[in-house]
Amino acid sequence: MPRVNISVKLDGVLETDVKRWRAICSIGLAFAIPCESLYGEWFSDSQPIMGTNIHVEFWHEDPAAARDALAAVIDEMHRIDELMSPFRESSELSAINRGAGAGPVAVSAELLALLERSAEVSRMTDGAFDITYASAGRFYDYRKGVRPDEAQLTAAVQAIDYRYVQIDREAGTVRFAHPEVYVDLGGIAKGHAVDRGIELLRARGIDQAMIAAGGDSRIIGDRRGQPWTVGVQDPRKSGTMAVLLPLEDTAVSTSGDYERFFERDGVRYHHIIDPSTGDSAREVRSVTILGPEATLTDALSTSVFVLGVRAGLTLIDSLDGIDAIIIDGDGRLHYSRDLLQVEP
Ligand code: AMP
Ligand code: MG
């Protein structure tokens, strides 16, 4: 693919670029030129937050301001985790799950907006994206190899329908129109966190940066005149990239059936659930979505995983500025129309 081949060398080019600046500066040092402020440098941090690895990286000319910006992004990730984690009793999301089946629960504007965004993606994907998947999804434990039995699953699937989540924007409340509904924002919250992090960096004047939360990343600017490189993992060869994408000013999300799964009788049970069955979606192995912001690419990568190759590409080809790369059940690559039209 045209976007793919040139990418391998990019880091080398960057290294050379930085080394050249460093060489110029070390000469400058002899004349007491403040080199750090002359050419800037890359700053980065990685932390385990939201059940995944958060990576922040950007170019900055002022080390003190850069460290401050890194800390602000990491704090923001913790804040969002505390608000939206289904595993924390104290999160707003847990409060909804405990109370919204019985009546309206007050929630913050931020969570309300993400619930509305989720509903929008549900409508757009004909219910492939559905945060009430968790009505059944909560009975799986991928680490322990646990799944619901038939009776449990049949009952739980009755409580899956995004229309059960009723939002009252005026009152700032949410209620469930079915008592057994359970919601989880695992398919969209990391993208939201990445977008929030990027906003924080932008507000500080940073214009060359990348933030990744597991499989959800967003890039602003380029990498000192070259694109950034984002890899799409081979779903069946851990640590091997199936595709390398040179990217600038883009969000990119990958959903894969290799992230959290167990196998039973030759069947793979993984964390992306088809809302119509409460069982894992099995047509494809991974979906990568490219688009302008990570909240949407995150939600769409999960959605297209459920929709499969045909319906998934039909949806993506109907959306302006959104591209997809799908690896199907036989390991074959499928590209959305705009990617196929890129000049080599
Ligand atoms: P991702 O890796 O972004 O595809 O997100 C997977 C996560 O999305 C899972 O761990 C669940 O928390 C959540 N999820 C699974 N199936 C669905 C679905 N059909 N709609 C919305 N969220 C889902
Ligand atoms: Mg996703």
Model description:
The chain is α+β, with helices and mostly antiparallel strands and 344 residues long. The chain folds into two domains: 7-84 and 187-340, Roll (T-fold); 92-176, Orthogonal Bundle (T-fold). Helices cover 38% and strands 25% of the residues. Strands 1-2-6-7-10-15-16-17 form an eight-stranded antiparallel sheet. Helix 4 (63-84) runs antiparallel to helix 9 and helix 9 (189-203) packs across helix 10 (294-317). It is globular, with a radius of gyration of 22 Å. The N and C termini lie close together (7 Å). The model is unreliable at 1-37 (pLDDT under 50). The protein binds adenosine monophosphate (AMP) and magnesium ion. Magnesium ion binds at residues 187, 253, 255, 298, 301-302.
What's this, in brief?
Helices cover 38% and strands 25% of the residues.
- Using the coordinates above, name the CATH class of the largest domain: Alpha Beta
List cofactors, ions and other ligands.
adenosine monophosphate, magnesium ion
Judging from the principal axes of the Cα atoms, what is the shape? globular
CATH architecture heading of the largest domain:
Roll
Query: Largest sheet at a glance?
Result: 8 strands, antiparallel
